[in-house]
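A quick word before the example. In earlier lectures we treated sequence and structure as two separate objects. From today on, think of them as two lines of the same record. Here is Cobalt ECF transporter T component CbiQ written that way.
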Amino acid sequence: MGAGHAHRLYRHGHSPVHRMPPHCKLAAVLGFVVVVVSTPREAVWAFAAYAVLLGAVATAARVPPGFLLRRLVIEVPFVAFAFLMPFVVPGEQTRLLGVSVSVPGLWGAWNVLAKGTLGVAASVLLAATTDLRALLLGLQRLRLPPLLVQIASFMIRYGDVITDEMRRMSIARRSRGFEARGVRHWGVLAKTAGALFIRSYERGERVHLAMVSRGYAGSMPLIEEAPASRAQWSSAAALPLTALAICLLGWTL
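And the structure line, produced from the sequence above:
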């Protein structure tokens, strides 16, 4: 079910977080994200407490801060959107660094930045401590629809194959002296995209025929593993339950 190799987001280790069953970690991250999203944006201290919780998890997982921060770059588009909100959201105006900005826009930007960053950080920690095969097994253990698990499995397995095909086509273009320098080269790139689609489709057909010849009948075999113990579930539940307590305090204080 896996991709056959570790993904670049995964950081090999032997920490307690690495050894935790994947479905426990998936449930914990999902619960944590739901709690963070449910927290009132005015409770600034609560988001700081959530960051401390994630820092504790990263320390337990032996994930360096630099590794985590580099992976947070993926949220740059959301950061750019958040920075625009104080200037485009209507409402009461205030002065910030000599510039007139919207108060509701400031709160909205803070809401997007705080909750988005915490959610992405939790997801990065999950990916850094769980390889792709284990993640798919965790989704299977959580009774996600089998078809969705298969789609995710095939996407992960053959994503790198398609990327490698794109790289070979790029090398072939450059070896013939082609470099995309302007609009007049878009036609060549469009033909390349079409050729890549045809090759991917044909490869998919070959893979499907190979699977059918080996007994594939529309579903992957289930891989059973030992169920998680009560202690493992308790350890996984510590993160979302602590976050829930902070969230409740945020609503009451």
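Notice the following. The longest strand covers residues 93-96. We will return to this example when we discuss secondary structure assignment.
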